[in-house]
Automatic annotation (TrEMBL):
Transmembrane segments: 12-32, 52-75, 81-102, 114-137, 143-167
PANTHER family referenced in this protein's UniProt entry, alphabetically: INTEGRAL MEMBRANE PROTEIN, INTEGRAL MEMBRANE PROTEIN-RELATED
Keywords carried by this UniProt record: Membrane, Transmembrane, Transmembrane helix
Lineage: Bacteria, Bacillati, Bacillota, Clostridia, Eubacteriales
Name of the protein this chain belongs to: QueT transporter family protein
InterPro entries referenced in this protein's UniProt entry, alphabetically: QueT
Domain of life of the organism encoding this protein: Bacteria
Length: 184
């Protein structure tokens, strides 16, 4: 890989990270669910399906964006758990992104990949962030899992599916990502 491609990939990772951060911060208090039982709605979680199309850029872009948005949210006072959430939530996002990438490598048709690709972000974030909230707030895990997973599913199965459909149509993703592949 030449220097021009490396630079392009780094710029794309940064852009996705910045977009993730902006979408998270625009979601306001709903993005951080500062108390147990509140459904967390991070519009940025639609981007967690990008590893289907771009394994390097999509995976590292959303991971970087998650880390950055948690830290910026903490500094802005909207994410009181930001210092804990930055490493823990970012690890959950990275694991979910890797699983989504592996789903993208499967032989399933595009629609099947899109539907399955939303499962890792929903389950992994529900489990990991749910445990984090249980530990910090001393509230029931089931309630915390539900509050994270429902919001994650709502965003991934609406905005995420729309994003996948647009990117997959006419190979639009090829004009965006340096390391692209067709999802179906």
């Amino acid at each position: 890989m030449n220097a021009k491609n490396k630079t392009k990939i780094l710029v794309q990772i940064s852009l996705i990270g910045a977009l993730y951060t902006v979408l998270t911060l625009v979601s306001g208090p709903l993005a951080f669910g500062t108390s147990a039982g509140i459904i967390q709605l991070r519009l940025s979680e639609a981007l967690t399906l990008l590893p289907l199309f771009s394994p390097v850029v999509g995976l590292w872009g959303v991971t970087f964006g998650c880390f950055l948005s948690n830290l910026v949210g903490f500094l802005m006072g909207t994410n009181m758990l930001g210092l804990i959430d930055a490493p823990i939530g970012t690890l959950a996002t990275l694991i979910a992104a890797l699983l989504t990438y592996w789903i993208g490598k499967s032989g399933l048709p595009a629609v099947g990949k899109f539907l399955l690709a939303a499962v890792p972000p929903v389950l992994v974030n529900g489990l990991v962030v749910g445990l984090e909230l249980t530990f910090v707030y001393h509230t029931p895990f089931a309630l915390n899992f539900f509050s994270v997973a429902v919001g994650e599913a709502a965003v991934c199965y609406t905005l995420g599916m729309l994003l996948c459909t647009v990117l997959n149509r006419n190979s639009f993703y090829k004009s965006i990502f340096a390391d692209c592949k067709k999802a179906g």
